[in-house]
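Example 3.2
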Amino acid sequence: MQTQFKAGLWLVATFAIGAVFGMVLNGALSNRAVPDAAPPAGPAGFVAEMERLIQPRDNQQREQLRPLLERTDATNRAIVDGARVSMAAALDSLRVAAAPLLDSAQARRLSEFSGPRNGARPPGMGGRRRPPPGMDGRGGRPPDARRGGPPLE
């Protein structure tokens, strides 16, 4: 009976250690920052991705699909470019309308948010995109010392 008890105790201990290790590892991996997948680069990115998804049977089918995919890619790019122009105009209008209501620090933050108009990212952003307001883990509120975050000033 002594041998069976020891074997059972080792089995329970091994299971408990494995469960704890699994929970710790799962927590570490789930909290790790994973960079966003880069969108397909260049004009052929959409076409290549759609070809990978569709998996044409042969080169003949690929050549028949390619003009359709390229036309859709051009349409999508035109839509996105138009949306960028509209959003930039809306932000410019907001900045002009809100200017009399804002102090200099607020105006600076609004200007930094809307960023440069030449397509470059604002300083400090690197290659990562900024999340939309309210989706940044702060509930859309600026951090401050009372909530443990650094002040914006």
